[in-house]
Design goal:
mainly alpha, two-stranded antiparallel sheet, 5 helices, 2 strands, 7% strand
Length: 82
């Protein structure tokens, strides 16, 4: 299994991964979407701390949903050019 630090990917990545993982159960998604968004907000509000105790799982080098959105730098709005 490959992993990456949370900060490599944009806020919303964890929410999207959870939503997509449970997409087959629309009622569950409706019931838990607010909690998943709160979790994503919590992690990305404290990303410098959270990177010491968590990670993003990767599929073929990127989170499953982010793979559809493009490269990590492009999706996080990195204007530094790196």
């Amino acid at each position: 299994m490959q992993t990456a630090n949370f900060g490599v990917y944009p806020a919303g990545t964890l929410f999207t991964m959870l939503r997509d993982a449970y997409a087959a159960d629309e009622e569950l998604v409706r019931s838990y979407s607010k909690d998943w968004q709160a979790f994503d907000d919590f992690v990305y509000d404290l990303v410098a701390v959270m990177e010491h105790c968590g990670f993003v799982s990767l599929l073929a080098g990127v989170p499953p949903r982010v793979r559809l959105l493009g490269s990590p730098a492009a999706t996080r709005g990195d204007s530094s050019g790196s």
